[in-house]
Amino acid sequence: MRVIAYILAVVFSLCFVGGLFWGCLESVAFDRDYYMGEYARMDREAATGMSREELGQATQALFAYVRGERDDLDVTAQAGGVHRDVFSQREKAHMEDVRRLYRLGSTVRYVLWALGAVCLIMLAFVCRRRMPRVLSTSYLTALVGAGAVSGLLAAAIAMDFGRFWDGFHRLLFTNDLWMLDPSRDALIRMFPPDFFLKMAETVLLRFGMIITVFGIAAVAVLIATRRRKEAF
Fold this sequence. Notes:
This protein has a two-stranded antiparallel ribbon with strand order 1-2. The chain is elongated, with a radius of gyration of 22 Å. Helix 1 packs antiparallel against helix 5, helix 1 packs antiparallel against helix 9 (193-231) and helix 6 (131-159) packs across helix 7 (161-172). The protein has one domain. It is mainly alpha-helical. The protein contains nine helices and two strands; from the N terminus they run H-H-H-H-E-E-H-H-H-H-H. The mean pLDDT is 90.
């Protein structure tokens, strides 16, 4: 029974950590204020020829399209003194791939939630009063794994982000639509590599802070339950 309990707890903890990472990713990827701050930092108005308001509208359209809240990316703006479509057909095709990838990630998130809930319910029947201690121990185990993976990602990003970013795209996409031309494509002018470098750092930092807080809580639970056991 003890082995089964720890297996259930570890699976739950991995699902929990995975859900936290996806939540951190979404909290940055769909944060309009974050984007507008980065546009200002990198002077994207000059790079795109669009005003701050038009950049905001184009960004909101991208958010809605990826999340399935709109069916097209037909957005126009006064770019470079000419009123025209912001995104080309190639960019729209690439964003269709991005939307499919986001839907896949969302599906994985729901699977993690469901699996985690099942494990938690089963764990409640298996270990009962020992549940807080078992969960805390398993979470710390999962935390070590998450920390190792996050550390490897951070190291790869720090050493050569360009190579990491190319490898990421080649792994996830089966075409070359992601290879855009800064001289004509608005997406690459809005989101140069430095934008995604900063975003990756922000996501990893936010994720690291949150899992560390839960780690401290897990240690506190272990200390409290140990003292209670000694008291008895």
